[in-house]
């Protein structure tokens, strides 16, 4: 049986403390890209009881996504925004989800993430990552931007770190492992990196802004 | 002396664009901060490094 909203939040308060849970509940986080990084970040944040997520991706679930992204075999062909919303609601029926089935560009990035306190860059292409980080840092001085670079391959998971590059800019990953070097993308290592981003989101929300 | 990604260079009084080219950065894949402030892409040409500047060039790689 699905727990009531009160039961659900009481359980979260037991784990996170009432003060932190209130901050998580009041927060809005934008996830830009719903692949290996974004789908895993979203699941972490939904489980933690973050009040609102803005999910943005233009793509549909593909069979080649299933090895590392939080989708199910029966969801192949469905827009990722729709599939992930359904999966998140199964985990946390009380989360608010806003979806945008569109490609993030320099021109729409600020409008799409307007309501978010924190923006998570979770794209796969290096150019898209750079575009979003630059757009947020240049044009949205009140937001935090968390980004990831370097999580491909079978290299040690211990090489994945989170660095604070400036007051509002955090970068997770090993900075060098490029999927374009033909080293593959491995679920466990991508999840480590996604967990770094998600964990930093929660730390920022509770007021811990150091890594 | 300026510091770029932790390394020291004699690049003071030089244009950021020229330095990025010399260090072979792909400008479509980077974000540049000087003394923890983002440098807007449109300002790369007009930005000249000063002695003591701390520069971080984040060069993104693919995968996610």
**How many independent structural domains of chain B?**
1
Mean pLDDT of chain B: 97
Assembly state = heterodimer
Give a count of the beta strands of chain A, DSSP E runs of length 2 or more: 7
CATH topology of chain A: Rossmann fold
Q: Note the beta-strand portion of chain A.
A: 15-25%
| CATH class identity of chain B | Alpha Beta
Low-confidence stretches of chain B: none
Q: Span from first to last CA of chain A? A: 39 Å
How many domains would you count in the coordinates of chain A? 1
**Which class of chain A in CATH terms?**
Alpha Beta
Helix/strand-derived category of chain A reads alpha/beta
Helix content of chain A: 25-40%
Report the principal-axis shape of chain B.
globular
Instruction: Determine the strand fraction of chain B and express it as a percent band.
Output: 25-35%
Topology order of chain B in helix (H) and strand (E) letters: EEHEEE
| Number of helical segments with 4 or more residues of chain B | 1
How would you sum up the major sheet of chain A? 7 strands, mixed
CATH architecture heading of chain A: 3-Layer(aba) Sandwich
What order do the helices and strands of chain A follow?
A: HHEHEHEHEHEEEH
């Amino acid at each position: 049986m699905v727990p009531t909203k009160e039961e659900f939040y009481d359980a979260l308060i037991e784990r996170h403390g009432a003060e932190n849970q209130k901050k998580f509940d009041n927060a809005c986080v934008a996830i830009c890209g719903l692949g290996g990084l974004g789908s895993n970040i979203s699941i972490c944040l939904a489980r933690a009881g973050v009040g609102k997520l803005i999910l943005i991706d233009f793509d549909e679930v593909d069979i080649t996504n299933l090895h590392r992204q939080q989708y199910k075999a029966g969801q192949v062909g469905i827009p990722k925004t729709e599939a992930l919303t359904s999966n998140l609601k199964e985990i946390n029926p009380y989360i608010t989800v806003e979806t945008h089935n569109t490609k993030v560009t320099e021109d729409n990035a600020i409008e799409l993430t307007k309501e978010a306190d924190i923006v998570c860059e979770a794209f796969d292409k290096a150019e898209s990552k750079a575009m979003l980080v630059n757009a947020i840092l240049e044009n949205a001085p009140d937001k935090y931007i968390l980004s990831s670079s370097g999580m491909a391959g079978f290299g040690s998971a211990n090489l994945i770190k989170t660095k604070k590059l400036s007051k509002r800019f955090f970068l997770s990953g090993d900075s060098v492992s490029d999927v374009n070097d033909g080293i593959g993308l491995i679920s466990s290592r991508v999840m480590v990196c996604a967990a770094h981003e998600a964990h930093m989101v929660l730390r920022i929300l509770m007021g811990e802004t150091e890594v | 002396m300026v510091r770029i990604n932790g390394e020291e260079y004699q690049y003071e009084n030089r244009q950021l664009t020229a330095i990025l080219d010399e260090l072979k950065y792909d400008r479509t894949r980077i974000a540049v901060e000087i003394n923890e402030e983002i440098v807007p892409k449109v300002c790369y040409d007009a930005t000249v490094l000063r002695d003591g500047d701390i520069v971080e060039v984040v060069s993104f790689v693919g995968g996610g």
